[in-house]
Design brief:
The protein is mostly beta strands and about 450 residues long. The protein folds into three domains: about 1-115, no CATH class; about 130-220, Zona pellucida, ZP-N domain (Immunoglobulin-like, Sandwich), CATH 2.60.40.3210; about 225-395, Zona pellucida, ZP-C domain (Immunoglobulin-like, Sandwich), CATH 2.60.40. Helices cover about 10% and strands about 45% of the residues. It contains three helices and 32 strands. The protein has helices spanning about 145-150, 360-365, 395-440; strands spanning about 1-5, 20, 30-35, 40-50, 55-60, 60, 65-75, 75-85, 90-95, 100-105, 110-115, 130-135, 140-145, 160, 170, 175-180, 185-190, 195-205, 210-220, 225-230, 235-240, 245-250, 265, 270-280, 285-295, 305-310, 310-315, 320, 330-335, 345-355, 385-390, 390-395. It is elongated, with a radius of gyration of 34 Å.
Length: about 450
């Protein structure tokens, strides 16, 4: 038996050194379980002969997603992985190769460490069950072959609440797509959160008896505020939960020509046309603008002009274009300008609701100061995400004068052309008149 004294300059210089058993390399395994303690800064040290990190998975995540340092010695590679202050059970495995594992933690004047010399084969050789909530109001659920074959079922027996919505067979697993607006899906409201829910069944043929029953739920970002900022870093679509949210500017209130070139140059005497969309096939969703402000800069948020505040329309030029599709909101308003600055920034906070949870923030509309204390969603609970598009800049006075000059010149040219045409017509008429007089 061989022991190793853990004592390094960092990070152990504030902690007690400790001994741990060094297991022979023949005892290495592909899979280990280990425990960490909350009151320590926890680390693991992996020793293997594998040079690539790609085959390692720690708590079902690639090892590359953790903070890690590497050391090479005598044909072996040591990987020290930082886990931080965490408590509980963990597991680590490699897809093909064996390795040995050391677990240790450091604290102030105290430390612990142990080696994991015994292990076993990784218990799951096929893909595990997994759920993906997609941005187009749908989800995908993967079932491993072992689960379905163990229940003596085939692909026709795996379905949702609606038996017509069935799974598909892939190479080494089954996959079932779960739309949120059909196939028996419904909306559940719980603890001020909304979920799309359905159930996957594995049914014995010609019966209503199930051997597989897997509840599925995808959280929907309801009553959550998303900050949409028009700024020089363009990012006008964001995926949030089970749908996308987008913000676009348009050339006119017909909303047929989106603005695609930036910076977007406007005249101070013009209007801005904004469309906010929650992009989802679920027609029961609705979007609501909680606030819309114009500010002179993104950093100086104190100096701003409120166009919409707490759902109340404050700007007299603001026009809300009625939409039959509540997933879209279209707004037009007059451009505002701060002092001599040549650009303006817009910030919009929008809220997504579901009609089945009515009443909700979307149905409350304008919240007066007296009623604000009754709104359940606090600012600390709001989940903020950023969209950006812009910037919006103003035409210089010189350009405006040039534009007016060109417009005036165009008008004068048109008027001159019309005058010349009329003069020619008059001459032709007069000539014809005198010709007839001479014949008489």
């Amino acid at each position: 038996m061989v022991s190793y004294l853990f004592h390094e300059s960092s990070p152990l210089h504030k902690s007690d050194p400790f001994l741990t058993i060094v297991p022979p390399s023949l005892l290495g395994r592909r899979y280990y379980k280990f425990v960490t303690q909350l009151s320590y800064d926890n680390f693991i040290f992996i020793v293997s002969q594998v040079s690539s990190d790609s085959g390692f998975y720690l708590d079902e995540k690639p090892l590359s997603s953790y903070t890690m340092t590497r050391k090479e010695f005598n044909g072996f590679i040591g990987r020290q992985v930082t886990l931080g202050k965490t408590e509980g059970d963990h597991e680590i495995y490699h897809e093909t190769s064996t390795f040995t594992l050391y677990v240790f933690g450091t604290g102030r004047s105290v430390s612990y460490g142990y080696s994991v010399g015994e292990g076993g084969p990784y218990p799951v050789s096929e893909p595990t069950c997994s759920l993906r909530c997609l941005p187009d109001a749908a989800a995908e659920y993967i079932l491993p072959n072992s689960l379905v074959s163990g229940a003596q079922l085939d692909v026709m027996n795996i379905h949702l609440k609606d038996p017509l919505c069935r799974a598909e067979k892939e190479k080494d697993h089954y996959i079932i797509k779960i739309p949120f607006n059909r196939c028996g899906s419904s909306v559940l409201y719980e603890d001020e959160k909304m979920f799309y829910v359905n159930t996957i069944y594995g049914t014995i043929p010609d019966t209503d008896v199930h051997r597989i029953e897997i509840p599925v739920r995808c959280e929907m970002e309801s009553n959550k505020t998303l900050e949409l900022i028009i700024n020089p870093k363009v990012k006008n679509i964001i995926c949030k939960g089970s749908y996308n949210i987008s913000m676009r500017l348009y050339q006119s209130n017909s909303f047929t020509e989106p603005i695609t070139l930036y910076p977007h140059e406007v005249d101070l005497h013009s209007n801005l046309h904004v469309e906010l969309v929650v992009e989802s096939v679920d027609e029961e969703l609705r979007i609501f603008t909680e606030s819309l402000t114009a500010s002179r800069s993104l950093e100086d948020t104190n100096k701003k002009y409120n166009i919409i505040h707490h759902g109340c329309h404050l700007d007299s030029t603001l026009q809300d274009h009625p939409m039959t599709d509540r997933r879209r909101q279209r707004l037009s308003f007059h451009v505002v300008k701060f002092d001599d600055l040549h650009e303006v920034y817009l910030t919009a906070n929008v809220i997504i609701c579901h009609n089945s949870t009515s009443p909700n923030r979307c149905t409350q509309g304008c919240i007066t100061p007296r009623l604000r204390r009754d709104v359940r969603t606090s600012r600390e609970e709001l989940d903020i995400a950023r969209l950006s598009e812009g910037p919006i800049v103003f035409r210089s006075k010189e350009k405006t004068r040039q534009s007016h000059f060109y417009n005036l010149t165009s008008v004068l040219l048109i008027a001159l052309c019309i005058t010349m045409i009329l003069a020619v017509l008059i001459l032709v008429i007069q000539k014809e008149y005198y010709r007839r007089q001479q014949k008489r």
